[in-house]
Amino acid sequence: LSTATLTYDSLRFGEIEDFPETSEPVWILGKQFSALTEKDEILADVTSRLWFTYRKNFQPIGGTGPTSDTGWGCMLRCGQMILGQALICRHLGRDWRWSPGQRQRAEYINILNAFIDKKDSYYSIHQIAQMGVGEGKSIGQWYGPNTVAQVLKKLAVFDSWSRLAVHVAMDNTVVIEEIITVSIMPNFVHQGFFCQTEDDFDDWCAQIRKVSNCRGLPMFELVDSQPSHLITADVLNLTPDFSDSDRLERFFDSEDEEFEILSL
Predict the structure, then answer these.
(1) Do the domain assignments include residue 179?
(2) What is the DSSP letter of 135?
(3) Residue 182 domain-assigned?
(4) How far is 23 from 35, CA to CA, in rounded Å?
(5) Is residue 222 helix, strand or coil?
(6) Rounded CA gap, 228 and 185, in Å?
(7) Rounded to whole angstroms, how far apart are CA atoms 150 and 127?
(8) Where do the DSSP E strands lie in the chain?
(9) What is the pLDDT of residues 11-61, one digit of tens each?
(10) Domain around 211
């Protein structure tokens, strides 16, 4: 399992002494800390997050495909990390911490197994890459964030243990009625956000509206029902192939339509 999943402890993050001290609250994945009084808690929280990175020498994808995702798997690994965090919250809770040198809970091992680099793991790079083939992406082709989100949404259907519904908001708009329709309460992801219960979702909506009213242009819009100008079809927005140099240009271009989409 250590060959498939790492934590920041591998980088000796916990030994960094120059962690900034500030009176401002520190937020990590929805949880608030104090940098002045909770430094150890902050470090423990960060080292407990799942970290997926480029790997090599795994089983050939599709039997004859690549054995490494270096250069093309970055967005796929990001999607794995986001969904992995959702599964941690789902099965272990947001306050769970990874304890080095101790026997880990069975739920944690099951989550790692879901992402290990082999063809029969629910959320392996093999499954993500092959699911993308059916949507027009060849194995080894770079994915955008929306493509990864849509593929993970389809793969989550087969994960009967987690019973997780994934909703992908399009056009920078979160439509409440869509989430209520497609989600099997109480456990769902919509996105970069995980809600354990319907009350969690209601609280999330209230917090998003509060933040939107206090600031300027919001990152995304929250509406009760779908505006008439939005497309209703639930389809993958696929992007054309482009070179490495074009990728960087598109990644940093805020006008690019794919990167304006709020995905997983």
Answers:
(1) yes
(2) T
(3) yes
(4) 7
(5) strand
(6) 26
(7) 13
(8) 25-28, 31-34, 165-166, 173-175, 188-189, 194-195, 221-223
(9) 455 455 567 788 999 989 889 999 999 989 999 999 999 999 999 999 999
(10) 167-232
Q: Is the pTM of this model over 0.85?
A: no
Residue with tokens 């996105």: 191
Q: Which amino acid is at 97?
A: R
Identify the residue with better confidence: 227 or 254.
Answer: 227
Segment holding 209, helix H or strand E: helix 198-214
What was the pLDDT predicted at 196?
Answer: 81
Whether residue 130 lies inside any domain: the answer is: no
Comparing C-alpha atoms, which of 196, 198, 197, 193 is closest to residue 208?
A: 193
Does 1 map to a domain? no
Domains held by the chain: number: 1
Q: At 231, list the tokens.
A: 């497309």
Q: Where are the alpha helices (DSSP H) in 117-166?
A: 125-133, 145-156
- State whether residue 91 is helix, strand or coil: helix
Q: The tokens 């304890």 sit on which residue?
A: 99
Q: Please, which pLDDT band fits residue 189 given cuts at 50, 70 and 90? A: low
